Amino acid sequence: MLVWTRRGRAMVLAVFALVVIVVFVAPIATVVAAALAGSWTGPLPSDLGLANFRAALSGQEAASLSVSLQTALLSGGVALVLGTWAALGAREVPGWWRTCTDAVFHLPMAVPSVAIGLGVLIAFNGRPLLLGGTKWIVIVAHSVLVLAYAFSAVSAALDRLDPAYRQAAESLGAGPVRVLCRVTVPLLLPALGAAAGLAIALSMGELGATVMVYPATWKTLPVTIFGLTDRGEVFDAAASTCLLLAVTLVALVVLGRLRGRAALR
After folding, report:
1. How far apart are the C-alpha atoms of 237 and 228, rounded to whole Å?
2. Cβ contacts of 21-25, under 8 Å, gap ≥ 24
3. Using CA atoms, how far apart are residues 135 and 138, in angstroms rounded to an integer?
4. Are residues 139 and 218 in contact, defined by beta-carbon separation less than 8 angstroms?
5. What's the 3-state SS for the chain?
6. pLDDT per position in the chain (265 positions), as tens?
7. Under CATH, which number does the domain 61-264 receive?
8. What is the pLDDT of residue 221?
9. pLDDT score recorded for residue 140
10. Which of 59, 135, 201, 204 is most buried, judged by most C-beta within 10 A?
11. Cα 83 from Cα 80, distance rounded (Å)
């Protein structure tokens, strides 16, 4: 229902601002305050400082941050390649086959991530693909989880592409590979950048499937944060969470700039 009066619009904006503050701003502000706190026995934290951040940038937390970043980049790259390939292939098949492909690739979005982790653990915990106890089983689990988003982004971009570009290239004698490399992929670069950013962001924060499959030598930062919280080390967990958010935002900003340059080209 539209609100036309000034008072009504003010009330709607006030309610919207309240919801944003309660749902988004307050939890993040609480995590930041806990990360800076030395103790929190009253309504507000006390003994503020950067000691928790210094601890989070050394030892196990720093190693886990590196593991999370490597996992996100590797799984995001795998998902981007496979999702792009599947979206390009699905465009040329009959409608019923494309519907089945969409259903298969979107299935990880419809089931709990714990189920995906358990499935990957069972599937790759025996020969001929014995990945259990290695970092690769974590990367496979993350790739499966983010693959649906990469496939969806590229598929949506392909649906918006004007076929006249491809037809013009083909009329000039360009073969399928040349059309793909010189026409289709360059036009898809903004969508590929968006898909890569979403895949990395989701992988950086993934916990459910990771808990099922991770080895002791490849522990991501969300798993470390969960362990710190479980042991009652809330301030250290909050500092690690802030670092996770910061690194994820930096990665998204970098990919956003690359996506913007690709769109200008």
Report:
1. 6
2. none
3. 5
4. no
5. CCCCCHHHHHHHHHHHHHHHHHHHHHHHHHHHHHHHCCECCCCCCECCCCHHHHHHCCHHHHHHHHHHHHHHHHHHHHHHHHHHHHHHHHCCCCHHHHHHHHHHHHHHHHCCHHHHHHHHHHHCEECCEECCCCHHHHHHHHHHHHHHHHHHHHHHHHHHCCHHHHHHHHHCCCCHHHHHHHHHHHHHHHHHHHHHHHHHHHHHCCCHHHHHHCCCCCCCHHHHHHHHHHCCCHHHHHHHHHHHHHHHHHHHHHHHHHHHHHHHC
6. 556 777 777 888 888 889 888 888 888 888 888 888 888 887 778 788 888 888 888 878 888 999 999 999 999 999 999 998 888 888 777 777 778 888 888 888 888 889 998 989 888 887 777 888 889 999 999 999 999 888 888 888 888 877 777 778 777 777 777 877 778 888 888 888 888 888 998 999 898 899 989 998 899 999 999 998 888 888 889 999 999 999 888 888 887 776 666 555 5
7. 1.10.3720.10
8. 92
9. 93
10. 204
11. 5
The domain ranges of the chain are 1-49, 61-264
Cα distance between residue 28 and residue 22, in whole Å: 10
Whether pTM > 0.90 for this model: the answer is no
What's at 133, amino acid-wise? Answer: G
List the structure tokens of 105: 């690739």
For residues 104 and 110, the answer to whether their CB atoms sit within 8 Å is no
